[in-house]
Amino acid sequence: MIRPQIVLFGDSITQVAFDVGGWGGLLYNNYSRRADFLVRGYAGYNTTWGLIMLQHLFQLDAPSPKPVAGMTIFFGANDAALVGRISEAKHTPIDEYKENLNKMVKHMKQYSPSVQIVMITPPPVDDARRVEVLRAEGKKIDLPERTLEESGKYAKKVVELSKELYLPYIDLWSKMQQVQGWQKKFLLDGLHFTQEGCLFLYKELALAFNQTSISIDNLPTDGVSKLPGFQ
C-alpha cells in the first residue's frame, strides 16, 4: 500500500517539529499508520528562500513525482524581521511575503492538484524576551530584532491570502495571545516554542486537518491483518 504523504514546510519552527514534545511528532502519532510525514523545515529561511527550495524539492518536471496529500506552510517569523536591526537580512517586504506564499500554493497545486494545504501564520513575539536572549548571546542591542506588532502585520497577510484562496488556516498569532501568560507559557526564547506551545499548535492543526480531505477518518489504516496466513 502506498501511504499518503503529508509535508510540513517552513522555517526553524518546522525544522524542530520532531524534537521531544514537538508539534510534528504529536501530529504524526495520529497518522502513524495512515500517512508518511516529510519534514522540510529550514532555520533562518524566509519565504523568498523557501520558494526557491520548494521548487527544487517538488519539481514539476520530475519523472515520477509522489503525490502530496497534505501540507502545512508555516513562514513569517523571519520575513517579519525588522529592517535596520541585526536580523534584517531575513526581512521580506510584506507584499512580497504574501506573493511568495501565493506562489508556493500555486506551485504545489501544479505539482499535486489534490493537495490539501493548511496555512499557519507566524507566531506572536515576546519583544522583551528577544532582547534578553540576544544579549545573553553577546549581542549589544537595545531593541528587539522582531516585534509583536510587526509579526501581527505579516500574520494578517496569511489570513488574507488564505481567505482569497479558500484555504484552511491557523491564526496562531491571534490564538496564542488569547491565553493568559502566553509569553512564558508558549515561547522559549520569545519566538520558538516550549512544549506547551507545541501542544497548542498540534491541537489547532489536528482540528484543522480533521475538517479537510486529510482527516484521519478519510485515510485508511494500512496493515497485514487481512492478508492470507496472518495470525
Automatic annotation (TrEMBL):
UniProt KW Hydrolase keyword: yes
Transmembrane segments: none
One of the Pfam families matching this protein, by short name: Lipase_GDSL_2
SUPFAM superfamilies registered for this protein in UniProt: SGNH hydrolase
Record's keyword terms, sorted: Hydrolase
Range of residues in the leader sequence: none
Protein name (database record): GDSL esterase/lipase
Organism: Capsicum annuum
